[in-house]
Amino acid sequence: SCTRVLTERPADPLNARSMPAQCPPRGCDHGRVAVDTISTVRRWMMLVIALFATLSANVFINGVAFLIPTLHTRMGLDLAKAGLVSAMPSFGMVLTLIAWGYLVDRVGERLVLTLGSALTTAAALAAAASQSLVVMSVFLLLGGMAAASSNSASGRLVVGWFPPERRGLVMGIRQTAQPLGVGLGALVIPRLAQSHGVGFALLFPAAVCGVAALVCAVGVLDPPRPPRAEAPADDLANPYRGSGVLWRIHAVSVLLVVPQCVVWTFTLVWLITDRGWSAASAGGLVTVAQVLGALGRVAAGRWSDWMGSRLRPIRIIAVGAAASMLALAVADWSDSALSIPVMIAASVITVSDNGLAFTAIAELAGPFWSGRALGAQNTSQLLTAGLTPPLFGALIGGLGFPVAFAVCALFPVAALPLVPPDPPDRPG
Which residues contact 406 (CB under 8 A, 6 or more apart)? Predict the structure, then answer.
């Protein structure tokens, strides 16, 4: 027979099992269906498209937080209410992440990325045109429901095209989309909001997501995977039954996203109201911090490839997140000049674990459950991200920034005992 299975690592559940690979061209008429036969250029092209699609979604999802200073100072909303408005996209994502993941498992990545980006564009345009804060909030919610498509689909796209020994690195690169999207939003959105108003500022994420929809429609190629009818029973089995590993990773990620969300949401308003910075200077610093955070995710992914573990680095990062948030609380309380560099350090450390957890879940869930598993991962994180701004906005309003930063340090500490050990048959 001219059919064989190409894999360097038989334990890899994503694309090694039951996948017929191309044989030498002479005497063989099989098409190119194995990851090993795809050109390096095409693989990296898929990574670039996944990165851009997710970055665009995050300009919308997280960029709304940079409307808080305008909502607070010009429209008279207190920080709790302004935080609630900024959380509407996150609440929307919670409603649809698992549904988008199920759709990815069934129809593939290209359709989901294209449709989701297009619907996000429409919702952002409608929010920009709204004359009522309530109506705008509804469209922000709907936009979050659409933007959820990028999280599961882009992660699957990247993991599906790369072998296990590179997944930590490439998923780290893909995960830079979140801090880069936040950084781009911080650079543009607050200036537009202060100069032209909230509605005009929302046209920026609408434009970015519209471009992403076109790029995904033209450029995305779904990664190969074994046909469902030919897949082993283990690949089709529910990975949540009989094992608590995925549940524990979800719980750890929920706890670690709290300090990340607080830093992202309130750094800009902290710099402006507590430190007296201008909107332009504060936005520039947030952008720098997010770029450094993006580089930190890449470094963490490469580190996990080198260690042959996704979970041990998460444990170390949790310790660093707790220490940095506690240091920030002390520095801010004492009005120390070190508070700014400590804030930058916290911005980098608190985001470094996301790509590792994402990769681990995709590898452990396998090719027929990873869409839903990644959807569940993001649902739990974004539900937390939706609750965090209003709750911590109220805490900051009542007790101040130092207390809020100190409370944040408790969440990574609680995550430490929940980090599971590496499975004995883990990929890579």
Answer: 325, 326, 329
Residues 6+ apart with CB under 8 A from 41: none
CA distances from 154 to 24, 128, 216 (A): 31, 26, 10
Q: Give Cα separations from 360 to 23, 66, 261, 297, 428 (angstroms).
A: 31, 31, 22, 14, 11
Q: How far apart are CA 305 and CA 312, in angstroms?
A: 11
| Amino acid identity at 340 | I
Distance CA 64, CA 198 (A): 9
| Phi-psi map region of 419: left, alpha, beta (phi>0 left; psi -120 to 50 alpha) | beta
Q: How many CB atoms lie within 10 A of CB 323?
A: 16
Query: How far is residue 94 CA from its own chain's centroid?
Result: 13
Of 311, 320, 385, residue with least CA distance to 350: 320
* pTM, entire model: 0.69
Give the residues across from 20 on adjacent strands. Answer: 5
Of 384, 326, 362, nearest to 151 by C-alpha is 362
- Residue stretches of the chain with pLDDT short of 70: 1-38, 76, 226-237, 367, 423-428
* Virtual torsion, Cα 119, 178, 350, 187, nearest 10 deg: -110
**Measured between alpha carbons, how far is 282 from 350 in angstroms, rounded to an integer?**
19
Tokens (6 digits) for 409: 């340090």
Question: Quick one: pLDDT at residue 17?
Answer: 37
CA 219 to chain centre: 21
In the three-class reduction of DSSP (H, G, I as helix; E, B as strand; rest coil), residue 20 is classed as strand
CB distance 180 to 294 below 8 Å: yes
Q: How far apart are the two ends of the chain, measured CA to CA in Å?
A: 29
Residue type, 34: A
Amino acid 428: pLDDT: 37
Beta bridge partners of 5: 20
